[in-house]
Structures are given as structure tokens and as C-alpha cells.
């Protein structure tokens, strides 16, 4: 199983700096721009202190990652760092944690999108014949998953950057 977790770097299909900036900007605008003010208004001044604490911890983590990369240039991923520190078992544990996080975040965002669309269109439901009916929330989760699925199958980051650019411009238009 450990050999399956090691994927050699073959042909690089990366993206340009500008396209990477669109991907990063889309991630920031998509979740951070609207959630941070809400979190600050809900949490008060203490939450501002916690934001700075998290920012400092993130900065320190970046320094530690840089130090790991400087020690061994063959390290290319978190899995490599975990294997170097804890052996094959550490690599497997980090792989399970990383993949679980990706799965759970995707599920959480689908549920969030289903709830938001259901609040906008509360009477929406899908009926197939007279037997099969899907409630509004579940139908919106299914529709959202089907709409997003093609972008999940993209393997070339340069193509994904166009999807991200569309998201960035949509946020800018909506927010004014």
C-alpha cells in the first residue's frame, strides 16, 4: 500500500503564474471574503485575536515546511515529509487525513449549497413519475454535484484556471 501512495513526478502539467493567481484568488474570494466578516461579527474582538493567532501559526508552519524542503530537496509533498519523520506508517496516516479532509470539505460545501438554494427556492422538488420524489435540499445537492462534477475531472491546472477566473469575476460582479 505504501508503494501506491508514492506517485512519481512524471510530465509536469502545471500552469502559469497568472493562472495560479486566479486559482488562489478564487479560493480566497469564494469562501474567505464573506465568511471572515461574518465570523468577526459573530465572535467579537476575541475572534480577531484568534485570527491573528491562526495567521501566525500558518506563517510558522510555512517556515517549517521551507526548512523541510531545504534539508532534503527530494521532498515533494506532505506525504514525503510524513514518511521522512515517521516512516511508512506516518505516510499512510497523513494520506488518510488529507483525503478525508478533502472528502469532508466537499460534502460540507455541497450541503451548504443545497441549503442556500433551498432557502432561495423553498418549493422546489424533483418528481420522477408518481413514485419517486426528491426533496428540495437533496435535489439541490444532487444538481450542484452534477454541475460541479465536470470541473473535478480536469487534470490540467491551466484549464482549471479559466474556471477559477470565471468564479473570480462572478464574485466581483455580485459584490459590486
From TrEMBL:
<feature type="transmembrane region" description="Helical">
    <location>
        <begin position="46"/>
        <end position="65"/>
    </location>
</feature>
<protein>
    <submittedName>
        <fullName>Putative Transmembrane amino acid transporter family protein isoform 1</fullName>
    </submittedName>
</protein>
<keyword id="KW-0029">Amino-acid transport</keyword>
<dbReference type="GO" id="GO:0015179">
    <property type="term" value="F:L-amino acid transmembrane transporter activity"/>
</dbReference>
<dbReference type="InterPro" id="IPR013057">
    <property type="entry name" value="AA_transpt_TM"/>
</dbReference>
<dbReference type="Pfam" id="PF01490">
    <property type="entry name" value="Aa_trans"/>
</dbReference>
<feature type="transmembrane region" description="Helical">
    <location>
        <begin position="92"/>
        <end position="112"/>
    </location>
</feature>
<keyword id="KW-0472">Membrane</keyword>
<dbReference type="GO" id="GO:0005774">
    <property type="term" value="C:vacuolar membrane"/>
</dbReference>
<feature type="transmembrane region" description="Helical">
    <location>
        <begin position="20"/>
        <end position="40"/>
    </location>
</feature>
<keyword id="KW-0812">Transmembrane</keyword>
<keyword id="KW-0813">Transport</keyword>
<keyword id="KW-1133">Transmembrane helix</keyword>
<feature type="domain" description="Amino acid transporter transmembrane">
    <location>
        <begin position="14"/>
        <end position="173"/>
    </location>
</feature>
